[in-house]
C-alpha cells in the first residue's frame, strides 16, 4: 500500500470515528424521548419506547363482533383498543411525520390477524387521501401501515386503484348519518385499472368509528365487480 492509500484510509477511519462520536454526543445531549410517555428511549430508530409498544391492547373478539359492519363491507376488523397510547402514536404518524411508527403498527397488526384473514391473493389497499390533503401532509399514513402488514404477510399493496375525488370535511363532529352523507361519492376507481383478476381486497385505515369512509370506498370497488371487500384498521374505540 503506498503512502497516499494509507492516508486516505486513515482519513476514512478518522471520519468514521468523528461521525460515531457526533452521534454519541447528540444522543447524550438530546436523548430520544417517547412521544407517548415522555421517557427516554434506549432503542434506536423509534419515537415510541418499548413499554408503550407493549401497552397496546388487542380488541377482544366480543367487542369486534359488536361493531356494526357497514353494508358494503363483508367484515371489519379493528385490531387494537383506541386508548391514549394508540391515539398519540397515530397522531405522531399523521401530523409529525413519524412514518416508521405506521410501519411498526402494521407489523404488530399482522401478528394479530386470524390465520385465514390474509390469503395469498388478497390485495391490500390503503384508503387514499384527497390529493390536496396528501400534498399538505406529504404522504398517506395508511400506506405505511399497509407496508408493515405486507412486510409480515407478503400480500401485495395496490395504491393506484382508488382515487379520493371529494375533499371531505373532517368527520370528528358528525354523527353516523352525517358521516355517511359526507362520504357519498368520495371515491372513484381509476379508469385504467383492470380489476378483473382481483377477488378479495382488504382496505387499510387508521381508526374505525362508523366505517363511513371505508364503506364509500367499498361501494365503488364492488361496482367494479370485486367480490370481497373487508376493512382492517389499527384501532377502534371500545
Ligand atoms: Zn413510552
CATH class value: Alpha Beta
Quantity of strands, as a count: 7
Largest beta-sheet details: 5 strands, parallel
What's the helix-strand series?
HHHEHHEHHEEHEEHE
Helix content: 40-55%
Mean pLDDT: 90
Portion in strands: 15-25%
CATH architecture: 3-Layer(aba) Sandwich
Number of domains: 1
Distance between the termini: 68 Å
Count of alpha and pi helical runs: 9
Structural class: alpha/beta
Descriptive notes:
The protein has one domain (56-236): Rossmann fold. It starts with a helix and ends with a strand. It is built from nine helices and seven strands, in the order H-H-H-E-H-H-E-H-H-E-E-H-E-E-H-E. The protein has a five-stranded parallel β-sheet with strand order 1-7-6-2-3. It has a two-stranded antiparallel sheet with strand order 4-5. By secondary structure, it is of the alpha/beta class. Strand 6 (200-207), helix 9 and strand 7 (228-236) form a beta-alpha-beta unit. The protein is globular and about 75 Å long. The protein binds zinc ion (ZN). Zinc ion binds at residues 34, 36-37, 39, 48-49, 51-52.
Amino acid at each position: 500500500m503506498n503512502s497516499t492509500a494509507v492516508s486516505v484510509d486513515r482519513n476514512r477511519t478518522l471520519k468514521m470515528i468523528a461521525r460515531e462520536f457526533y452521534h454519541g454526543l447528540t444522543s447524550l445531549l438530546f436523548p430520544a424521548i417517547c412521544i407517548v410517555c415522555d421517557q427516554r428511549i434506549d432503542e434506536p430508530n423509534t419515537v415510541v419506547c418499548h413499554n408503550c409498544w407493549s401497552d397496546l391492547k388487542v380488541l377482544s373478539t366480543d367487542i369486534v363482533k359488536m361493531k356494526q359492519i357497514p353494508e358494503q363491507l363483508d367484515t371489519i376488523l379493528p385490531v387494537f383498543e383506541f386508548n391514549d397510547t394508540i391515539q398519540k402514536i397515530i397522531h405522531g404518524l399523521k401530523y409529525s411525520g413519524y412514518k416508521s411508527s405506521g410501519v411498526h403498527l402494521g407489523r404488530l397488526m399482522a401478528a394479530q390477524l386470524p390465520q385465514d384473514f390474509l390469503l395469498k391473493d388478497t390485495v391490500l389497499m390503503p384508503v387514499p387521501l384527497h390529493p390536496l390533503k396528501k400534498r399538505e401532509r406529504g404522504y398517506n399514513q395508511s400506506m405505511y401501515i399497509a407496508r408493515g402488514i405486507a412486510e409480515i404477510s407478503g400480500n401485495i399493496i395496490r395504491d393506484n386503484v382508488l382515487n379520493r375525488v371529494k375533499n371531505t370535511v373532517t368527520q370528528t363532529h358528525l354523527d353516523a348519518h352525517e358521516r355517511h352523507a359526507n362520504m357519498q361519492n368520495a371515491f372513484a376507481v381509476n379508469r385504467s385499472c383492470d380489476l378483473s383478476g382481483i377477488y378479495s381486497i382488504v382496505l387499510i385505515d387508521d381508526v374505525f368509528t362508523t366505517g363511513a369512509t371505508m364503506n364509500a370506498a367499498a361501494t365503488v370497488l364492488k361496482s367494479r365487480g370485486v367480490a370481497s371487500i373487508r376493512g382492517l384498521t389499527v384501532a377502534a374505540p371500545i
